[in-house]
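Holo prediction. Input below; ligand is heme C.
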Amino acid sequence: MKLTAQFLLSSVISTVLVSAVFLPISAVAQEAKAANHSETKAESKPAPAKPAKPDLAKGEALFSATCAACHGADGNSGTPANPKLAQQHPQYLMAQLDGFKSGKRNNAVMKGFASALSADDMRNISYWLTSKKAKTGFAKEKDLVALGEHIYRGGISDRQVPACAGCHSPNGAGMPSVYPRLSGQHADYTVAQLTGFRDGTRKNNVVMAQVAAKLNDREIKAVADYMAGLR
Ligand code: HEC
Ligand code: HEC
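Structure of the complex:
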């Protein structure tokens, strides 16, 4: 009886040991195999069907005619209330235009302009804007910049405000298709957006509503000013 139990125990142990040693190896081998496989596939076959290439010339023409008056000739708006759009990620721009059109993001001015655009127009304009270089800006509030940097880089731990850098990246460049670029943006525009997320007038993103809910006016002003100078 004792012997059987011991035997069982030792066989369990060895199985655990064996799988502990071999499982990771076989997982690595499988990954390598998969990677190899997709490499050969990519060589032999063209990439899966993508939508037609955006037409940057059309995008530029449409933008110059209808949007540049407010957002600047190259998407670098000179008016603090109108956001800079140059170098912003195309997926984010398209999602915002879609949101204005559908009413998911509420803005009377932009609803009018976005509603006049087709999905192709939005794509052409967005990819053209991405190809334009963003003009850098400056922080202006000497007394607040340290607070702004602290919030941007480290968040506010005792109120569970996450670091902005964690999603929007340390230099504010964001991450294509997920997190918008923020660096160099007009502080007035950023203050308006963060206040809108907090007060529920910009309802199109739950994560940002939760982040902004915990910021007071002074903190919003500080982090917006810091971001304006970020590069
Ligand atoms: C009369 C001025 C005006 C015109 C013309 C205009 N916009 Fe805007 N746009 C604004 C303002 C103001 C905002 C900020 C809206 C808000 O507070 O939500 C904005 C916001 C945006 C945003 C969101 C940016 C972000 O960072 O979230 C995009 C994208 C945009 N506009 C694209 C366009 C395009 C494309 C056109 C032309 C088809 C256009 N705009 C025409 C004033 C304008
Ligand atoms: C968990 C990820 C995450 C964190 C952390 C985060 N953000 Fe965001 N942020 C987002 C996403 C996603 C969006 C895009 C929202 C949308 O689609 O409208 C966004 C949008 C924004 C916008 C709007 C940009 C524009 O052009 O209109 C501002 C401003 C912003 N964030 C500031 C901040 C600040 C300041 C912090 C730190 C206090 C912060 N974010 C932390 C994910 C995050």
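Residues 66-67, 69-71, 81-83, 85, 93, 96-97, 107, 109-110, 113, 117, 125, 192 surround heme C (ligand 1) (CB under 6 Å). That is the main takeaway for now.
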